[in-house]
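thought: user wants a sequence for this fold. calling inverse folding tool.
action: design(structure=
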């Protein structure tokens, strides 16, 4: 009954993954690189589920002609076991750092070599001449390596929560905690097969999460979009919290687009978003609310902290402009929302917006009237 249930679960998992792969091909998640990585992981998980079903079904037979296929299926299954968590824990680092992180693949190579050798030695697994399967003395190695990569992934996500203040990463931790639990249970109980069924569930949930995030995050800059901004503003109608509203705008963007092209203009927007996020990372959430307009909402903060963040912003702009031909300039203004003063947060936003345009006008020598690029 347990074996039948495991096989049925694996089959359902494969069906769901096939649907998700189809959807990911039709509607990519993130950039092309991330979408390809996601599809590859899903396909690899299907392969592992197929291998798991094969080893279970072959293992039920006493046919000695199945000994070799049984051993080969186990070699492939155990060798590929850590690959998906490895990709998950390294794909972002590989994209950013290239060859620097390849040493993290060393356990993967060691595991693959040991699994191949196990065909003859029985280190990881053993299939005797009667087609009976047994765990080898080193059976734990592929599982331990898999758990290691899952732990590394969860630690990276936890760091991302701290530095980016992204509450959605908390769900990512929960999502990829499932296959790690499956691996631990599979280590503990011989007859339980959970890791790849759980991995499939995690990948399906991850796809749903990423699709949901696409509605709340700006695809170009990676920070929250106008929809997320409006929802955040609506919260302040219901909750009793104070906040600073900081409005920022990129100067001369239209001129940059006209003179250098929209590709250069897009680069200015992306760099500006990174600078804003880095400047306010410890006190507020950044949003892109228009083409060249941004807003930061800082909960329960002080004027001193906002001023310090803006000083940091100016320093980062000076630093990046030393290396750029096309300079990045920003205007900004802010005001404070206090629930006790019975003034709407949208009114405070308007005041911050007005302060930003005064700053823009002053920096362009046109103080006192609204300036557009």
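)
observation: tool returned 373 residues.
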């Amino acid at each position: 009954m347990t074996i039948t249930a495991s096989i049925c679960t694996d089959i359902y998992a494969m069906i769901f993954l096939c649907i998700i792969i189809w959807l990911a091909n039709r509607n990519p998640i993130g950039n092309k690189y991330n979408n390809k990585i996601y599809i590859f992981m899903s396909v690899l998980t299907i392969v592992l589920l197929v291998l798991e079903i094969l080893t279970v079904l072959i293992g039920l037979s006493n046919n000695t002609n199945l000994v070799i296929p049984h051993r080969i299926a186990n070699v492939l299954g155990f060798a590929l076991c850590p690959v998906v968590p490895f990709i998950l824990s390294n794909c972002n680092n590989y994209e950013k750092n290239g060859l620097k992180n390849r040493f993290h693949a060393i356990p993967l190579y060691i595991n693959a070599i040991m699994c191949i050798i196990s065909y003859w030695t029985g280190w990881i697994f053993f299939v005797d001449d009667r087609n009976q399967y047994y765990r080898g003395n080193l059976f734990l190695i592929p599982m331990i390596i898999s758990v290691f990569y899952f732990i590394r992934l969860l630690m990276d996500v936890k760091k991302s929560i701290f530095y980016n203040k992204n509450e959605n990463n908390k769900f990512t931790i929960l999502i990829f905690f499932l296959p790690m639990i499956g691996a631990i249970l599979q280590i503990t109980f011989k007859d339980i097969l959970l890791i790849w069924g759980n991995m499939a569930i995690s990948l399906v949930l991850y796809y749903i999460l990423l699709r949901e995030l696409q509605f709340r995050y700006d695809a170009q800059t990676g920070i929250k979009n106008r929809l997320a901004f409006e929802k955040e503003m609506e919260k302040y109608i219901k909750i009793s919290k104070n906040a600073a509203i900081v409005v920022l705008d990129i100067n001369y963007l239209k001129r940059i687009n006209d003179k250098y092209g929209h590709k250069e203009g897009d680069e200015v927007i992306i760099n500006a978003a990174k600078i804003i996020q880095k400047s306010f990372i410890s006190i507020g959430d950044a949003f892109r609310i228009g083409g060249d307009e941004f807003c930061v909402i800082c909960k329960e903060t002080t004027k001193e902290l906002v001023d310090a963040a803006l000083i940091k912003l100016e320093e980062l702009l000076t630093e990046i402009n030393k290396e750029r031909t096309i300079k990045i300039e920003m205007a900004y203004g802010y005001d404070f929302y206090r629930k006790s003063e019975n003034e709407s947060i949208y009114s405070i936003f308007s005041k911050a917006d007005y302060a930003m345009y005064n700053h823009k006008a002053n920096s362009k020598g046109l103080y006192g009237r609204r300036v557009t690029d």
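thought: summarizing for user.
answer: Here is the designed sequence. Confidence is low (pLDDT under 50) at residues 94-100, 366-373.
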